[in-house]
Design brief:
The chain has strands spanning 49-56, 60-66, 76-82, 96-99, 106-112, 115-120, 132-141, 144-151, 154-160, 167-173. The chain is mainly beta and 174 residues long.
Length: 174
């Protein structure tokens, strides 16, 4: 069933519940929950808070499409999920994605195996003016947590993370 909404509106401060406070909770399990915010493209803005995640569990996935328009002198951030700071504590980059200075080569960091700033630096540059899908995830496979990075459908890195954590109050910037 399809209906054209001719009075669509944007809303702010929307809360998404895993069982709302008004009804009894369902006798059910939710898996792979994803709430997508439209198919529109937004330019990256320094300091723009996209969302606050009250509890980031040990299993998570970040998926987005990136279209570099030009290169920037110095490190340039695309998206950064953090418990509070740029880096220094386990969870400050959960994950973070940057371009290397003057390039469109990705720099992807997360807390892995006790390293507060475990980083993956794929050799290929992303093409200018073309969207490329990036997926950064930590998933449970055969009772082990895998941290992996997939660019344009190609797995470029995978490692077993033996020091996984859940994090509270994670702020996602982009």
């Amino acid at each position: 069933y399809n209906v054209m909404n001719k009075k669509a509106s944007a809303f702010s401060n929307v809360k998404v519940y895993g069982s709302d406070p008004w009804y009894a909770e369902a006798n059910a399990v939710i898996k792979n929950f994803k709430f997508t915010l439209g198919a529109t493209a937004n330019e990256v803005q320094k300091g723009r808070l996209l969302e606050t995640v009250s509890l980031l569990p040990k299993v998570w996935s970040l998926s987005l499409e990136i279209m570099p328009i030009a290169t920037v002198s110095g490190w340039s951030n695309i998206v950064h999920a953090s418990i509070g700071n740029d880096h220094g504590k386990y969870g400050d980059r959960t994950p973070g994605v940057w371009f290397h200075t003057g390039t469109t080569k990705l720099h992807v960091c997360a807390p892995v195996n006790g390293h507060v700033n475990y980083c993956v630096n794929p050799s290929q540059a992303l093409p200018l003016n073309k969207f490329t899908k990036l997926q950064v995830e930590q998933r449970l496979v055969d009772d082990k947590y895998e941290f992996r990075v997939v660019i344009g459908g190609q797995e470029v890195h995978k490692i077993i993370n033996k020091d996984t954590h859940s994090f509270s109050n994670v702020k996602v910037y982009g």
